[in-house]
Amino acid sequence: MSEKHLKTGDSLPPYSGKLRLFAMRFCPYAERSVLVLNAKKLAYDLVFIDLDNKPEWIFSFNPKGSVPVLEYEEGKAIFDSTIINVYLDEKYPESRGTTYLAGDQPGLIDYTIWPFLERFLALPLLGKTDFAIDQSKYEVLTVPAVKSYCLAPETHSKFTESRVKGNPDYNMLDTSDVVCCMRPRKKKE
């Protein structure tokens, strides 16, 4: 690992076949993913990016050019530390010994992380990943506090697509049939 931050004009290092994390050494969001990679003892390459003078090629991995970005296969990447860490936990699971992150009952950490997991489940529908996600593993979906508010992956996908097209449909829940927490939601009359 080089501590040098690559900048505009620098070449993309050759892909080694290992996971590759694009980060900035002082970024707390990137550090989250470094910690998960290290805790799981995964082999990976770490490439630092100068965020004030970004190399042109970083935009092919993340249209915003922000970090962290995890290249999990040559040319295939995901970004956002929460999404990266959920992916790593799905792909390289470890036994917690309890159903929920907080223990035998859901706790603050489960409620804090769930909104990101909920959106993560929509990634395959958006064509952003080529890995399957087993929704049955998410016991938190049966918790009344979650079940009463969550939206299904199809609904998040539909909203994200409207946002990407530049016309986010913030009122889609009022105007269309959408799926809420794995069940159809009725149209308002």
From TrEMBL:
Matching Gene3D superfamilies: Glutaredoxin
GO biological process: glutathione metabolic process
GO CC annotation: cytoplasm
Protein name, UniProt field: GST N-terminal domain-containing protein
GO molecular function: glutathione dehydrogenase (ascorbate) activity; glutathione transferase activity
SUPFAM superfamilies referenced in this protein's UniProt entry, alphabetically: GST C-terminal domain-like, Thioredoxin-like
InterPro entries listed in its UniProt record: Glutathione-S-Trfase_C_sf, Glutathione_S-Trfase_N, GST_Omega/HSP26, Thioredoxin-like_sf
Domain GST N-terminal: 17-96
Source organism, top-level taxon: Eukaryota
PROSITE patterns per UniProt: GST_NTER
PANTHER family tied to this protein: GLUTATHIONE S-TRANSFERASE OMEGA, PTHR43968
Family membership noted in the UniProt record: Belongs to the GST superfamily. Omega family.
